[in-house]
Amino acid sequence: MGKGRLEAFSDGVIAIIITIMVLELKVPHHADIEGLKPLLPVFVSYALSFIYVGIYWNNHHHMLHATKSINGAIMWANLHLLFWLSLIPFVTGWMGENHFAKWPVICYGIVLIMNSIAYTILVKLLIRHHGEHSMLANAFGNDMKGKISMAIYAVAIAASFIQSWLGFALYIVVACIWFIPDRRIENKIGREEEPHIG
């Protein structure tokens, strides 16, 4: 099957997720700068989640660019990823409204690690569909970056039981790791599209 509808649907869902998140930023009732202070935790939560959703959108776009076709299993795996992405606004709002309390931060981490697992499943199904020697397989390699991220998420969730700010700080670390766009696929596409001379 062609990938066009999958890509368009995913882009639409991700756009809605970002829209829902920004709606959590309520307009202050006071006209002075003091009115913004209660919104600071909500804004910090929103900013981190916006970055995370942006990272997933960016990498999803690059991955599908290197995809030739899809099958039913890939469609369900993509829906599985979108399901976990769609929970980000909920845990973002909960965490911000409760000023990074223990359980909201733990649940935020659970949603993040489930997104990571869902993305890994999607990648593995795409590689299986295109073959172990495909451009996609060569670009991802052993995906050490993804494995390190999942390990940090697990440590962050455990740390949040002791100190929620420590867990939140580790979520920021993972976002920083991925903030610079993953160029593995982009570089691989660039090399394969270079004209061969001779």
UniProtKB/TrEMBL annotation:
Keywords: Ion channel, Ion transport, Membrane, Potassium, Potassium channel, Potassium transport, Transmembrane, Transmembrane helix, Transport. It is found in: Membrane. The chain crosses the membrane at residues 9-27, 39-58, 70-91, 103-127, 148-180. Its main location: membrane. It catalyses: K(+)(in) = K(+)(out). Belongs to the TMEM175 family. This is DUF1211 domain-containing protein. InterPro entries: TMEM175-like. Pfam families: TMEM175. It is a multi-pass membrane protein. It comes from Mucilaginibacter pankratovii.
